[in-house]
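Run log // design_07
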C-alpha cells in the first residue's frame, strides 16, 4: 500500500472502491473522495465489488451491507480471500445498526463499521487516519522469529515451519503486537486501542473473533487466553 503524504499541499495517491446500491450515496462519496485526491472506483452491488476489486486493487473499500446480487458481508469475505488484497482496509458504511450485523462484518475481516447517515467531513478524516496510521506502522517494520514462527512486518508475511500463511491485515497486526510483547497479558481494551485505535469504534468481541481466526491458522500454542483478563503470546 502506498504511503500517505503528510504534506497537505500534495494529494494522497491511495485507491478507494465505493460500493453502494444507492446512486446518490455513490456520487456523494465519490465527489468527496476525489476532492481529497483519491483514485476512486464504484460498484452498485457485492458481485460488482468483487470484480472491480480484483482488477483495481484498492487500498480501501467502503462497503454497504444490503445490496442486490451479493450482500456486503459475502463480498468482504471474497475480497479478503484474495492474497493480493490482504492489506486492503475494508470499512462497512451501512444503515444496519444491529449487533449481529456488526459482528458478522468483523467476522469476515472488516476494519471498521460506520453507521449511516454519512457525515462526509468526518468520514474523510477517518479514512485519512487509517492511511496515516498504516504509514507509521510501515516505517517501524521489522521481523520477529520465535521457534518455527517467523513474522515479517516488512512484507506482511508469516512463515510457520517453512509454510507461508496468509493473514488479513488486522489479524496480522494483532499477532505482531502480541509477539512484540511476549508473556505480557493484554485485555481487550488494550488490544482495541493498540490495533484499531481510539478513532475507530468496534465491539470488544471483535478481539475474540480475530484471536480465534489467528489460532485457526497458526495453532493454539502461541496465544494463550488468561481467563477473566485477556490474551498473551507465549515465548516458551
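design_07 sequence
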Amino acid at each position: 500500500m502506498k504511503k500517505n503524504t503528510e504534506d497537505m499541499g500534495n494529494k494522497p495517491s491511495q485507491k478507494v472502491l465505493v460500493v453502494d446500491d444507492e446512486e446518490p450515496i455513490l456520487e456523494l462519496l465519490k465527489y468527496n473522495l476525489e476532492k481529497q485526491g483519491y483514485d476512486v472506483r464504484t460498484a452498485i452491488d457485492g458481485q460488482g465489488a468483487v470484480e472491480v476489486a480484483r482488477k483495481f486493487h484498492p487500498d480501501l473499500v467502503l462497503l454497504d451491507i444490503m445490496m442486490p446480487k451479493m450482500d456486503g458481508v459475502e463480498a468482504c469475505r471474497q475480497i479478503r480471500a484474495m492474497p493480493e488484497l490482504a492489506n486492503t482496509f475494508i470499512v462497512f458504511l451501512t444503515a444496519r445498526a444491529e449487533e449481529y450485523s456488526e459482528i458478522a462484518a468483523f467476522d469476515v475481516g472488516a476494519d471498521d463499521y460506520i453507521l449511516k447517515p454519512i457525515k462526509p467531513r468526518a468520514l474523510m478524516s477517518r479514512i485519512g487516519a487509517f492511511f496515516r496510521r498504516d504509514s507509521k506502522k510501515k516505517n517501524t517494520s521489522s521481523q520477529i522469529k520465535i521457534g518455527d514462527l517467523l513474522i515479517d512486518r516488512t512484507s506482511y508475511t508469516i512463515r510457520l515451519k517453512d509454510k507461508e500463511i496468509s493473514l488479513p491485515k488486522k489479524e496480522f497486526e494483532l499477532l505482531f503486537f502480541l509477539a512484540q510483547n511476549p508473556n505480557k497479558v493484554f485485555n481487550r481494551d488494550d488490544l482495541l486501542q493498540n490495533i484499531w485505535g481510539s478513532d475507530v469504534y468496534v465491539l470488544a468481541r471483535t478481539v475474540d473473533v480475530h484471536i480465534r481466526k489467528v489460532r485457526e491458522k497458526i495453532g493454539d500454542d502461541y496465544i494463550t487466553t488468561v481467563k477473566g483478563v485477556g490474551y498473551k503470546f507465549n515465548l516458551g
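DSSP finds eight helices and eleven strands in the chain.
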